[in-house]
Write a structure and sequence with these properties.
The protein has about 550 residues and is an alpha/beta fold. It has 2 domains: about 20-185, Chitobiase, domain 2; about 195-510, TIM Barrel (Alpha-Beta Barrel), CATH 3.20.20.80. It has 17 helices and 19 strands. It has an 8-stranded parallel barrel, surrounded by 7 helices. Strands 1-9-6-7-5-3-4 form a 7-stranded mixed sheet. Strands 2-8 form a two-stranded antiparallel sheet. Helix 10 (about 325-340) packs parallel to helix 11. It is globular. Residues about 1-45 have low confidence and may be disordered. The protein binds ligand TNX.
């Protein structure tokens, strides 16, 4: 779907420098936009007819040059995808799908040129924008989004969405005006990997629930969907060569509910849907621990040949694949082969966390064989950072999920691996584990990594987080949601919002824009948008939320 990250990552990291002069010119624009005086003075949202200031979006853009007349959507507006590919037309249709229900306008998507409207254009943009950057220029009569690649246009469309009034997100016709402030936004990501993870094993989530989350996170330019498909409590993906995994291993979940699994065509539908929102899917098959559902499904996978019962509690670290048996490696190769064949993305995640019932020697042996299988099936290895305690293969990506109590030695092991070429995705548990409680009063969630309020979740720097790791070893940031306590979309909403936009900003925005005092105002301005999208978010007292209009 997209070129390999290495080059793009370098470009993204260079971008703030390349655009440095522009940033300098527009820093005042950013800060005045971010300061959003209306947020405190008038209860948050700009007055009904005033467009939202150009920089007042999450994630913060690289640069903003406000000025000129605003643009206004009208019943005559067309979405012009002039002379471009089917993919650009699909992005135009996606945008129309967002804008039609609330405006009630026809918003035809057309490749005929015309005097104005919303224009989506591929090409000609500054090469430093890379594969995901865009420019958005708004003025009287037109808004033009230009990008080098479709992903950039899609991200520009998310910016346009956030610049329109909150009620644009509603699914019934609302009153205009539909204005976008005049000026230019120039934008591209700091990191190439900006992920979310959903644990569909501890509780199963339907395809519709997964799509809902994908749609929610796309608004913040998240580009990776990591799906945790197997764990002690449930196996969630059909595997033809080992059918009991899904039919038996997927038949329950935490608390003893009915569980479920995705058929291959359902999984492909998730992949297709994610791709239509420019998210790459990273499937995870966790091993050698977190495997009770598999061990319960096939007695021969157990060292003693006895299948344990299915498990519906929330303990970790008690299960292990059997390093001494050949069948273990056949199982690993078969499963990885089938999952890889269903997955167009680059990565296949093999877990490797909390293998407390596996000896170090067995762990190293199984992870070595699993990594080889991933390579054989054409994918790049991802694993939780414990993989750095074995021998990560060249090109492997380790996902760091430590927290403030992680020992210096464990951190050092990860840093040393990074110095040796292992790349890192950062998911510090006391920052971006979205299943951590916000406060002691939060009903849902866990608290083993501490309480994670909104400011704590946002206020860290991915480049400085693991002292000693080379800056270019960091591919980006991912915010996981573990689902021991979460059963449906409402639960996901309550834990992801409002922390998820902050994690997305850490992955996208230049370090120079990082500032809690201005971020919290931009976040506050998103409150009514969450509501318009049907998200019942946590009203953190750290954020000056505006008063919300009464529900209609
Ligand atoms: C740790 S993070 C786990 C998961 C749990 C999670 C709960 C990681 C790689 N392993 O098995 O679900 O904590 O927060």
């Amino acid at each position: 779907m997209r070129p390999h990250t290495a080059r793009r990552g370098a470009l993204s990291r260079a971008l703030p420098r390349l655009l440095g002069s522009l940033l300098l010119v527009t820093a005042a624009g950013i800060s005045s936009a971010c300061a959003a005086p209306e947020a405190s003075a008038a209860g948050g949202a700009p007055a009904a007819s005033e467009p939202r200031p150009l920089g007042q979006i999450v994630p913060a853009p690289v640069s903003v040059r406000p000025g000129g007349s605003p643009y206004a959507l009208t019943p005559a507006t067309a979405i012009r995808v002039d002379g471009s590919s089917g993919e650009v037309r699909r992005i135009g249709e996606y945008l129309a799908g967002v804008l039609r229900p609330s405006t009630g306008y026809a918003l035809p998507v057309t490749d005929r040129s015309g005097p104005g409207g919303i224009r989506l254009r591929l090409g000609s943009a500054d090469t430093s924008l890379g594969a995901e950057g865009y420019t958005l220029t708004s003025g009287r009569g037109s808004v033009t989004i230009t990008a080098r690649k479709p992903a950039g246009l899609f991200h520009g469309v998310q910016t346009l969405r956030q610049l329109l009034p909150d009620r644009i997100e509603r699914d019934s016709v609302q009153k205009g005006p539909w204005k976008v402030a005049g000026g230019t936004v120039t934008d591209a990501p700091r990191y190439g990997y900006r992920g979310v993870m959903l644990d569909v094993s501890r509780h199963f989530f339907s395809v519709a629930e997964v799509k809902r989350y994908i749609d929610q996170v796309a608004l913040y330019k998240i580009n990776t969907f990591h799906i945790h498909l197997s764990d002690d409590q449930g196996w969630r993906i059909a595997v033809d060569s080992w059918p009991n995994l899904a039919t038996y291993g997927g038949s329950t979940e935490v608390g003893g509910g009915p569980g479920g699994y995705y058929t291959k065509s359902q999984y492909k539908e998730i992949v297709r849907y994610a791709a239509s929102r420019y998210l790459e899917v990273v499937p995870e098959i966790d091993m050698p621990g977190h495997t009770n559902a598999a061990l319960a499904s096939y007695a021969e996978l157990n060292c003693d040949g006895v299948a344990p019962p299915l498990y519906t509690g929330i303990k970790v670290g008690f299960s292990s694949l059997c390093a001494a048996k050949d069948v273990t490696y056949r199982f690993i190769d078969d499963v990885i082969g089938e999952v890889a064949a269903l997955t167009p993305g680059r990565y296949l995640h093999i877990g490797g966390d909390e293998a407390h019932s596996t000896s170090h020697e067995d762990y190293a042996r199984i992870m070595e064989r699993a990594q080889a299988a991933v390579g054989r099936h054409g994918k790049t290895v991802m694993g939780w950072h414990q993989l750095t305690g074995a021998s990560p293969v060249e090109g492997a990506v380790a996902q760091y999920w430590g927290y403030d109590k992680t020992s210096a030695a464990d951190r050092q092991q990860v840093v040393d691996a990074a110095k040796n070429g292992t790349r890192l995705v950062l998911s510090p548990a006391d920052r971006v584990y979205l299943d951590m409680k916000y406060t002691a009063d939060t009903v849902l969630g866990l608290k083993w990594a501490g309480l994670v309020e909104v400011q704590r979740s946002y206020d860290w720097d991915p480049a400085a987080y693991l002292t000693g790791a080379p800056a270019d070893s960091v591919l980006g940031v991912e915010a996981p949601i573990w689902a021991e306590t979460l059963t449906d979309s409402d639960d996901i909403d309550a834990m992801a919002f409002p922390r998820l936009p902050g994690a997305a900003e850490l992955g996208w925005s230049p370090a120079e824009t990082h500032d809690w005092d201005t971020y919290k105002l931009r976040l506050a301005a998103l409150g009514p948008r969450f509501t318009a999208m049907g998200i019942d978010y946590y009203r953190s007292p750290q954020v000056p939320w505006p008063a919300e209009p009464a529900e209609d």
